[in-house]
Amino acid sequence: MAKNHIIVALEIGTSKISVVVGESRSEGTVHILGCGKATSFGVRKGEIVDIEAAGKCIREALVEAEEQSNVSIGQVYLGVTGGHFESFNNRCPIDITGERQEIVEEDCEDLIAMARACPVASQNDIIHSILQHYSIDGQTGVLNPVGLLGSKLEAEFHIIHGSTKRIQNSIRCVKEVGPEVLLVAFNAVASAVAVLSTDQKNLGALVIDIGGGTTDYVVYVDGVIKLSGSLPVGGDHLNSDLSIGLRILMTHAEKLKITEGCVLLQPRLGVEPQITLKDETGFTGKVIDRQVLNTILHVRMREVFEILKRRIDEAGILAQIGAGVFLTGGASQTLGMAELAATIFEMPAELAHSQDCSGPTFAFESPELSTAIGLLKLGSQSNPQNTGSWFRNLLRKLPFVGMFL
Amino acid sequence: MITLDPQRSNASPAEYRIQIIGLGGAGSNLLNQIISDGLGGSTAVAMNTDSEALNKSLAPQKIQLGIETTRGLGTGGDPEMGCAATEEAMESIRQVLQGADIVFICVGLGGGTGSGGARLLAGLARDQGARVVIFATLPFTFEGQRRVAQAEDALAAIREDADILICFENDRMSSTVGLLDGMREAFAASDQILSEAVRSVTALARRRGLVQLGFDELSSALRGAGEPGARCLFGYGESTGPNRASDALTKALKNPLLDYGHLLQGAPNILVSIAGGTNVTLHEVEDLMTALNRSISPQAQIFFGAAVDPQMGETLSVTILSALGTQPILSRSVSPRAVIPPAKSLPIAPSEALGETDQEVVEETAKSTKPPELIPQENSRGGGTKSQTKKTAPKQEQMMLDPVGGGRFQHSEPTIVNGQNLDVPTYIRLNIKLK
Fold first, then answer.
1. Which of A1, A112, A350, B411 has the fewest Cβ atoms surrounding its Cβ within 10 A?
2. Which of A164, A230, A237 to mutate against chain B (most B CBs within 10 Å)?
3. ipTM score
4. What is the pLDDT of residues B386-421, one digit of tens each?
5. What are phi and psi of A271, to 5 degrees?
6. Burial of B399 (0-12, 13-18, 19+ CB in 10 A)
7. Which member of B415, B425, B434 has the closest CB to residue A232?
8. CATH architecture of the domain with range B15-206
9. Any CB–CB contact under 8 A between A45 and chain B?
């Protein structure tokens, strides 16, 4: 029997750095052994702006995770994000030549190589080329073409690419701390893997990961990723808006957002219309109008959701999202987020947390860790010891940058 | 039988004869900078009343103005004297201008020679059938009201004779140099930027393009650049190497006159010209334009030009030119997004609200690029600066927007989506009153 395999996921977030140590079980689930968190410095909008400060925080988080899980961390799976990531769908055709009309494994591999080499901006690198469907001589929706007959094989890929230098920066930052980076994945993809069930993917789902610095999104249609991206606006912007609008410190703004903030305009029942802040010395300080607070948050989130909606609509897949919106990420915990998303996208919306894993509940029920857990899952699926998953075959050839090897 | 005259077919508009004239002290200094940066086929002429300054000029051709009127001295800041001095030298100027297709006049307004002579010079060039492009710098405010007023008068006068008028305010230049840089460096830096602008515009006019930009496009992109208070946006960058397209664009956007690309958001017409050696790929151009599109408003009209110039070798260059409509000089430090007029009423109907404000900004700037009715207001400012400040007083809330624009994200790359800077709080962009 395959040995259980230890994998470590690292997400360098704008507000916090999380490390999750997990064990990949042979049945395809992930058992969480421990996690480490550290408040992050030197990261803005999901990208590293101070490598030294960020490195320090990464070390802190790694140490905590090592202590909790009793594992020495030598290799990590790294999640990256940032507004520079872009995605598009690409179709690669290949002719089946010669006498044989049967499609063989090599043809599929050729297609995958083609997808990885498809042209993107020169300063960018492809980080994921995710296989969507095959089609043979115009017959669409073929899942596994090997062994079938045909003269022209085509495959559709979802290509995600981002700035080479910025991806390298994240990798270098981690390497300087110590661990080796095994694989790099786009955060949105990881979050979606963590929170969605296969049914939801098939029905069509929108996953929005509202993090500290970015809002990452992925749209699944018919079980495959059709659209993904990152908007460099996140919880940090909410805090900054509040601190500007209410003239309070950033730290106070964040606390206020978490304890009192709500992104809906309708007043909630049973709460005071005004909030009195305590100042440093514990005396009563500023009085804040709840309506003002909520309005600032509301317009910001409404804008974010509307930008996403427009992008999805432009891709023409808004109507194909059947299962609804799944919100995750730290800032999604702000009150009223799901309701607001439901109104704007006009479909059911819910807060989602990681599925199919075991371990301490706080870890997988916390939306902040969705990305890290998703990374674990991606890691366990790409782990060659984990046989038995048909998905593996696909994954082996599918993701991830080879550039840092 | 029809024979092709090779001489003729080569003498395409590529062979525009371009003359760059530096008029007065400031103009001559700028001309020196342009000459040392390379004229690239244009001819340069320096004209000044001050014979000592004229002697120092690097220009191959020099015209001494006002031999009788000023006797080789300066005008002492008197435009009338400058006018008379230029008039005196009319004949020699006419000879020099003979046959020029485009005349670039670099002039510093506010003093005597420049303010007085520019109009005559422009008129003369125009009468000889040349297109006239004027680069005018306006004096620092600290040089005194009188100089500012002289400059404004001169500006109003030359506007009629110029096909294209591009204004740079010296006050804005101060933001381009470091606090600790000496005066010398400061002036050198601003001359450097202006020289780049002049050189790239001459190059635009001269170069044969694959996608040709004509004089008309140039003037539409720069429409309004000469209005008082209007802002000429200019960026130029060149680079070599594998990432040259994005590097060149980054350099161009870094130009202080573009305020790191922030200012392009409000520009209604933008001219982009890409030039490079024979190996420029379509892919590079596409990349560059996609990247640029992120910095500009979706409603903006783009005049795109591309040229292949074998002399450029491995280099790829990009020039961005645009004009931002008139805005009161007083509020110049307020970035363009802050001059969005207060919305009439603010029911939150944001599904359209986003788009609407977007349009409003553009419409507003578009309207204000050709507002003859705005100018008298501006000029009537005269001595009544106090009343002006009083008028703006109730708009206090807008003034405070200035530091807001940056805030936590001041030093990070701006997040511009659909022409909006998302780092600025949404409620400010939607103009929602909080209380």
1. A1
2. A237
3. 0.77
4. 444 344 444 333 333 344 444 667 667 777 777 778
5. -125, 150
6. middle
7. B415
8. 3-Layer(aba) Sandwich (3.40)
9. yes
